[in-house]
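COURSE: Structural Biology Practicum
ASSIGNMENT: Worksheet 4, Part C
STUDENT ID: 0417
INSTRUCTIONS: Below are two proteins. For each, the amino acid sequence is given first, followed by its structure token string. Answer the questions at the end about the second protein only.

PROTEIN I
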Amino acid sequence: MTREYVDALRAVRVAGPGREFLFDDEPVDVVLRDGRIADIAPTGAVTLTGEVLDAEGAWILPGLWDGHVHAVQWALASERRWLGDAASAREAAALMSTAPVRSDGRRIGTGFRDALWPDAPDRPVLDAATGDAPTYLINADVHSVWLNSTALAREGFASVDGVLREEDAFEISRRLNAVDPVHADRAVRAAADRAAARGITGIVDFDMAWNADAWERRRAEGFDAHRVEFAVYPADLDRAISDGLRTGDAVGTGGIVTVGRLKVISDGSLGTRTAACSEPYPGDGRGVMTVELAELVDLLTRAAGAGLEASVHAIGDRAAASALDAFAQTGAAGTIEHAQLIRHADLSRMARLGLTASVQPQHALDDREMAALLWADQTALAYPLASLLRAGIPLRLGSDAPVAPLDPWHAIAAAVTRGAEGGEPWHPDERLSIDEAIAASVRTSVRPGAPADLVVCGADPRSADREVLRRMPVLATTLAGRLTYRA
């Protein structure tokens, strides 16, 4: 499709970074030229020419980013049976009994959360409900997958209860996501358009695949809905180094796609009870370190030497401490992904190392009951936001889609309120201010010279309550001056 260019936005009020340069809150006109903001002036002070979007006093922010997305898996989630409302293993199995069968014969469901179920996933229960159709149920956290006997045989795995965890589960997800590229690209484009309608102008893609070719193909075919930074996984590190990929380098022309960081998953997750923690889970077990320190140091050393920063998934406090040890030993730059359980002493260490915390505020709400049950004895900080920021650690907000919806307003509302509708906030001392949440969701500022990546909102984010924030009416989104969405 051909995107319409905007030459000016008339009568907007700046609600995010950039407002500090203005004298007051009165509407301004924003002139765009060559993909950037060329001028900002009081409304009516300059003559506007070309295509003018009249905002009529609406509010404007820099374009929003989602700092943690699994793009193909998120795009394909809409084609899979939703299991997020299943209250038991038997109910989830029953839902899969009527799930549509894909052209390859598989049935796929996604989004179940078994940690609070009264019964456990069990292969005979799933077999009885689903028969001979190979059936796959993906946990909301993607760290475990429940398969019936036919699916296990088809994929060449064995499991008494039908549940595969961590690397085995990731391998199943990789296979399920390996659809025809035409199909995948069409789904990604549709998902990107939905994201643009929520103000997204950039994502960090952590798909578990070789993303360089996929995003270059999409870019060459005209993808222009948002900017993309794509990750490289350890299995492809040698290939990335051989191809000369370096963090921040553009792929192809247009500046839409850039090389991101090496992604290393160093432990599991709360929902699968595999996040590596200092204190045991109820029953036994302290989770798993899927990448031990020596291997992590080797990966970060090789990546840093080749110009690649690192993003280390560390959910439990033991994993976070190990990741900080590796960053300290190697001098690598990058992010801690998730940081859901952090030792108090590690906050200052993380700040001294100059690392960024890539966090998903919606997880704190979705995992609240699980954390109360499974992490009741942990003494580290659970789902910290304000503590990270107070320690001097930059924050980037994201969704971890499809774990949570790719909607930046959900993340912002969760960060600001730490509570569900009508409920008490959870650890309210970890709330961010609206200005802090917005700053952690953008990469630029509304000021001359900045990229014309902008989102026009129908309500003032700085005075909106939780429900208005979550449902924020987006009137328009521009990327380098091109309209990627218009209400």
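PROTEIN II
(use this one for the questions)
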Amino acid sequence: MMRPLMRVVLSHYAIGLISVLICIPMIITLTEIPKSLWLKPDLHEEMDIVTGIGVIMIGWGVLLEERKTLREIFGLLEVQNEQWQVAIDHVCHNYGVGQLSIGLMAEICIELIKIPNTIIYTGEVDDYLVAAGLVFVGVGALLLVRHVLVMFFFLPRSVAVVH
């Protein structure tokens, strides 16, 4: 029962669709948060949003990165189209590492603000750190859009690159 479900969930179309769905709150974040930067003293909500998006980016990056391991766990290795699956694994691994790394950078920007000012003084640069976190969210969104395009349209070319 789990094998057929995981075969669908780990397909390049499902991965592309999930990436699209993850892009939506990222894009909303990129359009809404800049409206309040430098206009109000309390950035807790903005920090929480960037932190939440960063966690989503990290989580999705790890899942993408470990697609091959998930296929192994659910007995989906050595299938008829294994060369195709290996190509998808390779692309997902690369984009997953990117998403994970960029999400961590967004998180670092926000965590710097949360450290007490007696340790790291960020008093006057909190808005800039949130903006830097937003830049990383934007880069992550662009990376996911590119990943979606590869998953839906350009994956056959990557098969030739991998093998």
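ANSWER KEY EXCERPT:
Q1: The mean pLDDT is 91.
Q2: The CA atoms of residues 54 and 96 lie 13 Å apart.
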